[in-house]
Structures
1.
Amino acid sequence: MSAPAARAPRSALAPLTHDDPESLGDFRLLARLGSGGMGTVYLARSAGGRTAALKTVHARIAADTSFRTRFRLESDAARVIGDRYGARVFAADALAATPWLATEYVIGPQLDEAVRLGGPLPERCVRALGADLARALGQLHGSDVVHRDLKPSNIMVTAAGPKVIDFGIARALGDERLTGTGTAAGTPAYMSPEQAGGLEHSPAGDVFALAGVLVFAAAGHGPFGGGQAADLLYRVRYAQPDLSGVPAGLAPLLARCLVKDPAQRPTTAELAELLAPEGGSFADGLPQPVLADIARRSAAVWQEPPPRLAAPAEEATSVADGGGMSRRRLLAVGGATAGGVALAAGGGLWALLGGRDRGKDKGKDKAADGKQPTSQSPPDPLWKADMAHPLVGGHPLRVGGMLVTVVGVATHGISPQDGTYMTDFFKLEDTWRFATDGKALYAVRDAAAADKALAVVARSAENGREQDPLVRLPAYDGTDVLNQILGVDGDTVFLCARSAGSGQWSVLAASLKTGKELWRQPTAAPSKDAVELKHPTAVRAQAVRGGVLLWQRAEQGDALRVSLHDAGSGAERWTASLSAPGATPFLPATDESHVYLGAETVQALRLTDGRPAWSFGEGRDVGRVVGQRRYGIPTVRDGVVYVVEGTRGIVALDARTGGLRWAESAPEGTDPLRDIAPVVTAKHVYSMDAAGLRAVDSRSHRAVWRYETKADVLTPDPQAKQLYLREQRALIALPVL
């Protein structure tokens, strides 16, 4: 779709038509900013008075699945670039019948309009423009995203500096799913030679396009002229650029950016330094007609919007005479209703929830397609968030009043009340590099930090940025991407990191108050596969009564090693190992006396010495289980341990003795998932099976409803009293009943 997602109007605001929606999401539509073959852009305002440019997509285009994917990626890329160099994203819904994206309303003309108004820009203004755009692209590239369609019409000229908009064909580096090799996508006049040839468009391709934009800003024409697309593509690939009219001080640098070989072009950081080493004033260099245009657009924002256009006479008559809605209006209203799902994401801590009632039963399900009958209909989702990239595992986290979850190329902070976007946490897409104590978000510092020391930083809830290091440990190699933050308890942070000198890996504790290391214990290095995949073997830590509990997979086989360490010195007090094929627990089931583990049997290990207090399940018929754990990952609540038993369903065990309290009356073919721990409330036990999420009544011991889903992560949020289901490409919030 063309660019106007965040642009100001070319002229006066256009009135809404009779069939434009009244609102989308939390935004009331005021006027039209523009409309074309792909969709419509509106001036909109939130209930709190925030003015936005709201971009929609025509329904016929939204029916294309690949286009919805592009639209979703566009909002991700816009969030990555941030509001310094782009239009801040307020909200979006790529799943709505009419997908929409609400961004900051950027006040100013597009660069091509600015040049038409005031002529080519002065050299100092072009340099400041280029330096800011280079830094904007660098920010994208730092999150492994390329723009692929930088051109004058995708750059807004504002009094505060240029802003990059329209990320409709931006994508992650190396992702060929949407536009495969051999297919050229972009604008021919500003494509790179490799992009014009249908090859991979790397960050160097964005540098080539930026140079073309600067030629236009400085000289009033593009580097390869105009004409038919085929002629432009040929000149981009084989002809030398036309730099006539470019100031002599700029021409050599832009020529270097426009060479055909990507390896010979400067990086964005180098280009920014060469263009404006000491920064530069952008607005002061703008021609007077451009400044006047910005002022005019600024005043237009708060003018009374034009009245909505009336419906055509024939449509109004059909409604009045027929005593109801016309087919066209009915479809429009239906589309607006379907679009009411808010794009959101969220999460919670591994905790147990208190139950609550939610009114009367909603009816009964019928058995169909081999699925077992239940007595009630499942609750409706509170919201469903579209995930930009598939992610297996990775529990969302509750951090104070914010939900933090990985979404595409960034980690987002989202409101748990309504799922609205709050902030970005860039370069935190690796889930093992951040953790929370429930109050603040802590992270291992970016591996590209200049001093190379391992450091722990807090991430700001206001803007997501790294703050000054709370812990800095030069003895460890901070450049290793497999360093993990295992958890935070009070003033202590637990880490697994590689030593700077010897390469020895250690589990260590450090003080957030003093910034000093408290203790370390050697541990196994990541396996060869982990290093090649750049994804470490899970090592996890939890403060429990009597010390710090560690658990991790053995380097080979399916053994799960559990150990307890002294909180002050790190000295190992005991260790235990058991065969447990399947997933590693996200957090263990523990209480004041035991840690509970499920494998061949359910075991309770004493926290005092690690010895078994009891074992349940030996010799029991658990159904047909081949080559997998017989008992799943358990949950403990109020003196009762809940665990999936083979293919039989939930069993409830006395936490003190291991005696059977009750067993689920599950029909044949339930096929519960043992690698996902149940969630327990006062009235229900929530458990995943092959068909979805089951709610098992604690009194009748039967499943009362099933919500169909392919989720592989189940996370409770005790504060919001919600459950989060993570599917491959979606996060779903359900109310706890």
Note: The two ends are 42 Å apart (CA to CA).
2.
Amino acid sequence: SKVSQVELPKGPVRDWLCGIGSVLTLACVLSLFAVILVIPFVNEWPFDTSFTLSHITALFTESELSSVYTNSLYVAVMTAIIGCLFAYAAGLVTSRSKLPNWAKRAVDSMSSVINTVPGMVLGIAFLFAFSGSSLQNTFWILIIANIVHYFATPYQMIKDSLTKMNGSWETTAKLMGDNWFKTIVRVVTPNAWPTILQVFGYYFVNAMVTISAVVFLTGARTQVITTEISALQHLAEFDQIFALSILILATNLIVKGVVAAATRERGTVTIRQRVVQVATAAMTVRRDSRLVAAEQASRSGSPDFPLPTTGNRRGRTIFTGTLSGVLAVLLVAFGFGAFSGTAAADGQVVIYTNADDEAVTAFQNALNANGFENKYVIQSFGTSELGGKLLAEGKALEADLITMSSYYVDSAQERNHMFADLTDVKSQLLQDSSNSTAPAYRRPTTVQEGAIFYNTTVLRDEGLPVPQSLADLADPIYAGQISVTDMEGSSTGWLMVQAIADAYGTGEEGREILTGIYRNAGPHLQMSGSGPLNSVRSGEVAIGFGLRHQAVADKNEGLPIDYVDPEEGNYSLTESVAVLDKGDRTNPLAQRMAAVIIDEGRPELLRTYPNPLYVGEQAPDNGSANPQVFPEPLTVDLLQAHQDFSEACKREAQGK
């Protein structure tokens, strides 16, 4: 109720020193993110740094990338709008209402609980709770998850703003004839508007960048930018990742700038506005009295109180209300996918996959060449995300056909009985193959083998010998020059653990070797399967362990990358194709497409993944020198046992 102007004392030296210090601090912080602004504008980092705009233009020419941006905008805007309403209503309950204290404490408790739940846990909870419901694979489940995930901070912002306002406004307005709702709309809300705008910006920005809560909830038609980035990271498409990151950054900066400008302008008139709004409330009684008097005068024929014209105002109100209602219906319907086009509506087969980009390309080439172009939708996921959806959603999964790590397919079938026997595949498995006993509901598509690879230039400059085995990687001479994958983050790391467990056991010898490797890797222990190769490509480290076919491809492209088939052997994981059994809702094209992927797609797949699986296939020249198979069946239980072994070695390497 009182404003005091405070003049800061002049101090040019102080201002210049603080300004320079501020700029230097900002420059140091922002320099860490300079790579985001550089990589999208070069051909191939770090080997070909010539300027190009191709990665940026791809954002607007490739329909898949432009659609995920549109989806993200929709989810962010709707999250911000509904989140503001939700947080504002909760703030009113606890700070401006006459509800009992227990009701107010319940809202505060809900905010505190939500603030302690990690986003990934929330996403998995939504996955289990809404599997098979009308919310599954819609934008609305993403919107609701975002609103709940980020509720605590907006609620506290609104609550603090409302608490600081004059507590007698509602009483004063009530004495003047206004009800509580009118007072909130006319007086409280305009004064809370700067905070509401800031809450809008908070919800919008976080909805654009969130990944943990929504990564398990998106479907083939509802992918957003962050989930697309997660899938691209799995495929090592870092040019597109950084281009999309720039798009997110630019969008968020625009929204934050608009919010800042709007709140700055409103902030200069907040106190004056309070007075005006209270005065407006005080005039309500006089205005209503004048309208009553005018109506009475009109009936008596007196010209002293002419009635205001209300026809145009009523018409505008009806038009505005109708337009708002139509817009709300359209936005809600779009959130449920009514206008985004569902695969079920047009008969398209939805394919979920965790396969590499080379495998996905081979699938598409085979399907398109056999008359299935535009009859399917492929959506890529990381192994853990797709595995989680398989185990949690079962037959309610959106997909009609999947290609996935075989051990996950087997575990999902054992748990959910969700796959139908493949009926159209003609290719026969090799009898001497480890996959010769594959169950009838799946057929292997590719074999992923592990290998050691190294940067020839860095290895020479560092004067290091070429390692020949995994045991060599535990040698202290490689300290700080090794990058490997943590199997907690990617199944690629399991290939290395398999080899050590089989060759040296999980006892003292095996533990000593794996601990030594983790100790040498230090901060270069990656959560991504493609992370070690990227570190080796960039020269960050000299040696890595990862997928063999990726190192072969880099060497063939002329990059300074070479590879070694370790003496312990090239252990492998298979990926398989399977068709979901949805009863009467099973897409009849799914069986035929699964057959095409195997019968027609294997020749192209064999060029990248050189392990014969079917009768008539021959290993190409780039086949591994020592292919090995783990003696026990690869199951989720074995995966957990090896993860425990790996985690114990990792803690020992870190001195914990």
Note: Residues 63-95 form the longest helix (33 residues).
3.
Amino acid sequence: MATKGRELEDSKKRKRPAGKESGSKKLDLKKPKFTKNATEKISKKPFKPQNKVDGSFKKSHGKSGGFVKEEKVVPKTKQEQRVQAKELIEARKKKRKRNYTLEQELTHLWEKMRQRNISKEDRSKFVSEAIRKMKGKVNDIATSPVTSRVLQTCIKYGSQAERGSVFAELRPHFLILSRNKYAVHMVNKMLDNASKEQLVEFNSFLHGHVASLLRHVVGSMVVERAYSLGNAAQKQALVMELYSVELKLFKDLVSMKESRLEDVIAKLGLRKGSVLEHMKSVIQAVLGKNIVDHSIIHRALLEYLSIADKASAADVIQQLSGPSLVRMIHTKDGARIGMLCVKHGSAKERKNIIKGLTEVSKIAHDQYGSLVLVCILSTVDDTKLVSKNVVRELKKILKELVFDKNGRRPLLQLLHPNCSRYLSVDDLAAMELTIPSLFNKQAEASEVEETGEDENMDEEDADADESSITKKSKKLVSGGKKDPFLRRKELLVDSGLAESLIDTCVENAEELLRSNLGKEIIYEVAIGGTDGILHPALDEKLEILHEAITSLVAKAKPEAEEGTKEEHILEQFHSSRTIRKLVLDSPSFASTLWNKALKGKSEIWAKGHSGKVFAAFLESSNAAVNKLARKELQPLIDSGVLVLTENKHPAAATKAS
């Protein structure tokens, strides 16, 4: 059985044809074996060196035979290799770039025309030559990373006719060039130097494409430049395209005098729902790409929040609450958006905003950013967080802030909140802005929380409580739930800011008194702040400040000479009026000043700016202050040497006492 099975397996194997098997030869895959003769043949072959510098001989294949001397192979130096590589690169660039030779010529001209010590005639000659060379090829030149700079310089220094020729050649390509990362700088330079007619024509090219360009990182720069350079009507035309599809399609609808979105909707009869939907699609696309630096976007966002519902407004605040908000508060509308986010944001969102203020010093010196800091100091109840992230940074640069027009605003807000002397009407209006949909929600929540009654209220009770609801609404605008005085005290006194501020005023007392901006800081600090917020915790420090001012006043009056020194502190315009206000508003300062500096010197200082300081002792509403100087000043008043302001007389002061 085993034999039969083996035969069956053998029969199944593939068999080669008989003829081929007999005539074929098997391939030997083993290593070849070298015989003795083969080894001898290899050893007899002459050795040929590969690298020969001094030359060698090789057999000639010509008719004459014999040997011919080989040429020397000398290696190239590194400099020769670099030159050869450079030539190779140049040859490749010429094949790849069709305007390569022109670019080289323009670059050489650019190096000459951009020099600072060149005459206007020579520069205009180079500019004219460059524009002549690039005529007909300006579009290609503008998109090149090298020659686009040449074109910018030509636009900057060229004549109006030369700029017009470039503008005419680029007219069909402006939208494409606005999206190019190299050509966009040339387009912006063209707008900066454009005439009024050219700017109007360029804005007409942008019509219908504003929303799509704002979604483009590069293209948004062009829209922003056109928006910033335009007049009020041109700005309005650009931003109105973001309101609805109808305004995007029809140019005639854009030319309107109404600037507020609510007025536009009312006049054109637009559906509020469709406007919200269109604006939401535009704004979400822009915010999704984090393009939040441009003022036109800030304007559109502010108008959107004025009509947005609760969910949409809260969503925008959530997206902006963070480091991205810092990039917005450098504009007027951007700062207002920042204040709205602080007012209506949740505790978590406020925390993200405050932690995102990485450069508090830079923000404090900014015209609009300083208002956001003012809003934070007046609104946020988490004073520990504000002290750690904002107040601590302000303490480091106090000397800079007290002399800066914008930097002093946060300090003055803590010392004297919402004062019309330090904040303009526009600033105060910005501080009172709210988002209608969210403000109504907060007002209702506060009303329910404080009264505990919302549904079971009679009509008479509702009328009686109308005034109280108005007061609650104003409280929501100005701050959170914490008492404003307690919040100010925690930020100003408990944080150590007031103590550092007093020390700064003592060190720079004379300079602050003479300064138009610094005088208001030292005045507010010296009187102890509004509502006496610095008393009684810092009374000792304030006495030191009073004595520092008094020591300046006690200096002798300088003699009138040619090439005189600085005016005395009582004769200088700003300092004399500041000291006068301190006498009127701070009895403790008035007592120190009279007893240590002015007593017995009234005849010397009775005239000029200094006379107003003496008159303030009799004009003060405090009887003790009147009594200090009445005996010495009365003869001067009777003789007409000292004149009281505001038609006040010592007799009136005596009756008041």
Note: The first helix runs from residue 2 to 12.
4.
Amino acid sequence: MPRTAARVFVDCLLAQGVTTAFGVPGESYLAVLDALSDAPGIRMVANRQEGGAAFMAAAWGKLTGRPGICFASRGPGAANAAIGVHSARQDSAPMILFVGQIGTGMRDREAFQEVDYRAVFGPLAKWAVEIDDPDRVPELVARAFAVAQSGRPGPVVVALPEDMLAAPTEAVAGPAVRIPKAAPSAEDLAGIARLLEGAGAPLVLAGGGGWGEAGRAGLRGFAEANRLPVLVGFRNQDLLPATSPSYAGDAGLGKTAGVRRLLAEADVILAVGIEFSEILTEGYRLFPIPEMAARLIHAHASDAELNKLETAALPVHAHPDRLMPALAGLRLEGRARWAARTEAAHADWRASLATPPQPGGLDMGEVVRHLQAVLPADAILTNGAGNFATWTNKHFAFGERQRLLAPQSGAMGYGVPAAIAARIAHPERTVVCVAGDGDFQMTLPELGCALQARAWPIILIVNNRSYGTIRMHQERRYPRRVSFTDIENPDFVALAAAYGTHAERVTATADFPAAFARALASPTGAVLELAIDTESLTPRQTLSALRAAAEEGV
């Protein structure tokens, strides 16, 4: 018997294995909400703003490898959700945004909240489509799941006109899509071995999205067996455990001297899953384009990323979950001569974890060292964007089962929604969000989502009463001409308590361990406001020192 397209649509979500979706309700997709009420297999998480919902979907995709699902109403709702689409694109995280749309008969009249989603999201998402025929719902929903997960994973936007959703159809949901993963050929593996064995200073660069357990384990096995140093990409610190003797740090923002030396000296680079981004290449200046000085072996799940910027000596179209297990069995002839260099690189990275005493009463270096000592082996850390993120991104050594959810897009406000999504995905795991005071206030209403979903993380607000990163750039370029970067904050403790979570303000280093113990013990999570000195700009530079250097022209 014919049913509405909305009910067939929900059947399609169930067929694709969807268990959780994030969103804000809207009248433009009421038929879907009604159909979802008869689908107990899908948990709808009620967000407070579509930006928070989209961040949660993006984080879900990054954490689980399955598309995070977001629902938004038409027009303003879709515009709010765009930040999550952008973050998922730059994170290579599978995500699908389903957005309501005006009736099909109203197009091109500037109807209430009308948006051309193909035009708006076309350059931002991997694919943007509008379903205007109820009989095509199974076809286009399945394709959306396939596109989001294939090659380089990313976001897809699907518009759902409200009259189409209410229309009858005899279509039925199809099977779950199966996503093929490109595998290396025997010729590829032989070529990789040949180029690496001829190297005096080989280097592995690992990053991007789509890595599963097989890829991570294969990366570790291959690198350690062959005494190869590994640098991970921007905010990919959880790809290789820091305990690995091959781990040499990250090639993201704030590269250490040791990392720069490895990149400069490398004569053969095996780049796996890497996109040669602005951050990695320091504004596309680190490597000549289109051919770097080192011989490049570039392996990627998407052939579209190969030879995109850097022409590879050996391009390999292979997913890391297929390539790295295949490489793990190789024993390269040069491994003995590379060992000392790799040991030195790991030692350099270890030394970089140490930080000098910080100004003020609360030392974030000591805070991070305490987190390192007490967090469980499977803890999940999240953050948004700001100088505060340096503390956990550069000075926390991630273990084998610990994960980092952080936006390569540099989006403020990502950390809190990501932490809540992680708690929903893994309620048994400890989740800690590190947020700046400005960063936290971008998405603080999602504490209401945590309250309603009973998914409270621990949130550490690093409060320096400033947009610290922008203040840093301001002082560097226009010393003593500070404008627009000071923040007058609310009472974070009272605010968090109003949302039903444990809350404290910490002003002294010695008080943090006990406060964090109370946070860990709280059944409703916690918000700890960490009051740090505005002078504490970065772990190794105070605001005054930066200003003085800028004034001297250093």
Note: The chain has a mean pLDDT of 95.
